[in-house]
Input
Amino acid sequence: MTPLDYEYLRKLLKDRSGLDLSADKQYLVESRLVPLARKAGLAGIPELVQKMKGGAEPLISDVVEAMTTNETFFFRDKIPFDHLKEAVLPKLAQARAARRSLRIWCAAASTGQEPYSIAMCIKEATALFSGWRIEIVGTDLSNEVLQKSRSGLYSQFEVQRGLPIQMLVKYFTQTGELWQLNADIRGMVQYRQLNLLNDFSQLGTFDIIFCRNVLIYFDQDTKANIFGRLSKMLEPDGVLALGAAESVVGITNTFRPYPDRRGLYQPNTGAAPVARAGLSPVAMRAVASAAR
Output
């Protein structure tokens, strides 16, 4: 792979998916794209790039999907789900008692373990949500992983990662070497293909947004823009959950920390964007634009 080929791929991936590859990630690109090139009947990455430059849109989509990290597992990191069960759901159950409905968005659903983990948490809280209308929306850039999500079929390895044995027995049925999630849990989640770089306001507003372990791959300006738009998608008392290595600090003031629950945030209603350490003028303009 030539330096020019790598720069072309870096720009394309950032424009199409927000993935911000550093200058020293050629090995990662080669490990993921060489097999894709061979599958397409091409000799290697130079030939792959040449075909992409010719406007082979299906191939471009395959390249973006191949480079997107889809690492996930049930109840990943555990703590956000403890927060959900112990604090967020009880509080929202009280606040939404009159309307008896709840909307939740998983903004990087991958192969479905996260939205299904949330669905199981709600199912376990029958006393709080019996008779409620619960809507969980899972979105992802990759159509391939969304197809797997909809099937609710997981390998023995996948169900052993983070899933308590009692929940496996309660909510899954073994089908040969695979485990099928029960229809009642699958029915709680609807999936849609969505790129976070594009407008997502058509999804409506939510009470809870899980946007975990995806923004770490974006640059500061892109994060600021997405945070600004996410803040508009949440109810004033809604909750945003980020990944363990993610934070709004130094990026935006459109969110404030949720009391005593690390990794959770709430809309900072009425806050005007202010300069923060490490935030570029470009990022500040993005935040300002998103906040209007």
